Amino acid sequence: MKTVVNFKTINKLAIPATIAGIAEPILSITDTAIVGNIPVDGVESLAAAGIVGSFLSMLIWVLGQTRSAISAIISQYLGAGKLEEVKTLPAQAIFLNIVLSIIILLSTIFIVDEIFQLMNASGKILNYCISYYSIRVWGFPLTLFVFAVMGIFRGLQNTYYPMLIAIVGAVLNIGLDFMLVYGIDGVIEAMYLEGAAWASLIAQGIMAIMAFVLLLTKTDISLKIRFPLHKELNRLIVMSLNLFVRAIALNIALILAVREATALGDKYIGAHTIAINLWLFSAFFIDGYGAAGNIMGGRLFGAGNYDGLWLLAKKIMKYGLVVSILLMLLGFAFYTPIGHIFSNETAVLQTFYSIFFIVILGLPINTIAFVFDGVFKGLGEMGYLRNVLLAATFLGFIPILFLTKYAHWGLYGIWIALTVWMVIRGGTLLWKFRRKFRPLLQNT
């Protein structure tokens, strides 16, 4: 069946993908907002939630890359009309990913003190990090399973079911946060930061059950491991390894940012925690169009439809920029009440407001990077994506971060470094896409 590239088909995938994509940042934002308003040690709890959230995001992003690899391969086979040939691959990929996640989970719980000390956590904040992480970490394999199932649905050009899973998880997490963090008089004792961790873990468990049931009932994909190993498993592993390296480089940047903000003091890591959660929320919001580029791009590439691929890139870029501009306007209009959602500490809020304009002004730049990230994943260009992130991190972000630190620019320097990082990522991907596919338009 021919893939039609227009407003309706793109947004039919992009809008549900946007809702599904913001599930994880909503979990983190909910924890951040509710934890930041805890009546006892709110600033320390907020800092701990930010530090642990950054580390868990690193683990999830590093190992969750199988989702993009599965999606790319399935969508390419779908575009080529050979879907039946790839139906045994997902079960093998999911099994491999879950086993690896459990090994990593078990290895981290024995060195949890050292992990957060490396991120400059100490004293009461370190204790809170350990207690929060020791609960939330068990949701790690569950989240990876959900990500893998979402990748299968994306490859099948379906973002509706991932959206349902995400909505249920987010709503459940918010409700449980209020119940467990603050408690209910005479029914549930307030658990504060640990309550937020339990809320996230329970929500992730429900999402995993939903993903399992929907995969079995709504697709022909089986989770039963069948041999021999699929011929595409090697390609999937290579693609995933490239994305693993890419995700490590990405998270080196994000964790260094957290580490440097933590070193500046409690109010700075509190402000940075609010800013990075809003940055991630907007990233996943815009990334809905990157998901459409991933899903449709893989199918168009599999079918050899380069004219359609070029048109797709132009349209999703335009739609993504419109969304980023709307988010900018909302941010400028409501930045004061947005800050109060997360914290009532004057020092934290003043610090947050001082750097929020950098976060907002960077959104259109982020759009270019996120959209073409999605397109290149659909094309299976994981090696190039790896090289772009390595260059952006080690030749852009880290030098700028330490130059601005030397100049005593504080939190401003951290966010300037993050902006330069995104400029390199987006500009390099845009250049490569034009260079590779514009000449092919003359031959189709």
From TrEMBL:
<dbReference type="Pfam" id="PF01554">
    <property type="entry name" value="MatE"/>
</dbReference>
<keyword id="KW-0050">Antiport</keyword>
<feature type="transmembrane region" description="Helical">
    <location>
        <begin position="196"/>
        <end position="216"/>
    </location>
</feature>
<keyword id="KW-1133">Transmembrane helix</keyword>
<feature type="transmembrane region" description="Helical">
    <location>
        <begin position="409"/>
        <end position="431"/>
    </location>
</feature>
<keyword id="KW-0472">Membrane</keyword>
<dbReference type="InterPro" id="IPR044644">
    <property type="entry name" value="DinF-like"/>
</dbReference>
<feature type="transmembrane region" description="Helical">
    <location>
        <begin position="46"/>
        <end position="64"/>
    </location>
</feature>
<comment type="similarity">
    <text>Belongs to the multi antimicrobial extrusion (MATE) (TC 2.A.66.1) family.</text>
</comment>
<feature type="transmembrane region" description="Helical">
    <location>
        <begin position="236"/>
        <end position="257"/>
    </location>
</feature>
<dbReference type="InterPro" id="IPR048279">
    <property type="entry name" value="MdtK-like"/>
</dbReference>
<feature type="transmembrane region" description="Helical">
    <location>
        <begin position="132"/>
        <end position="153"/>
    </location>
</feature>
<feature type="transmembrane region" description="Helical">
    <location>
        <begin position="350"/>
        <end position="372"/>
    </location>
</feature>
<keyword id="KW-0812">Transmembrane</keyword>
<feature type="transmembrane region" description="Helical">
    <location>
        <begin position="319"/>
        <end position="338"/>
    </location>
</feature>
<feature type="transmembrane region" description="Helical">
    <location>
        <begin position="269"/>
        <end position="289"/>
    </location>
</feature>
<feature type="transmembrane region" description="Helical">
    <location>
        <begin position="93"/>
        <end position="112"/>
    </location>
</feature>
<dbReference type="InterPro" id="IPR002528">
    <property type="entry name" value="MATE_fam"/>
</dbReference>
<keyword id="KW-1003">Cell membrane</keyword>
<keyword id="KW-0813">Transport</keyword>
<feature type="transmembrane region" description="Helical">
    <location>
        <begin position="160"/>
        <end position="184"/>
    </location>
</feature>
<feature type="transmembrane region" description="Helical">
    <location>
        <begin position="384"/>
        <end position="403"/>
    </location>
</feature>
<keyword id="KW-0406">Ion transport</keyword>
<protein>
    <recommendedName>
        <fullName>Multidrug-efflux transporter</fullName>
    </recommendedName>
</protein>
<dbReference type="InterPro" id="IPR050222">
    <property type="entry name" value="MATE_MdtK"/>
</dbReference>
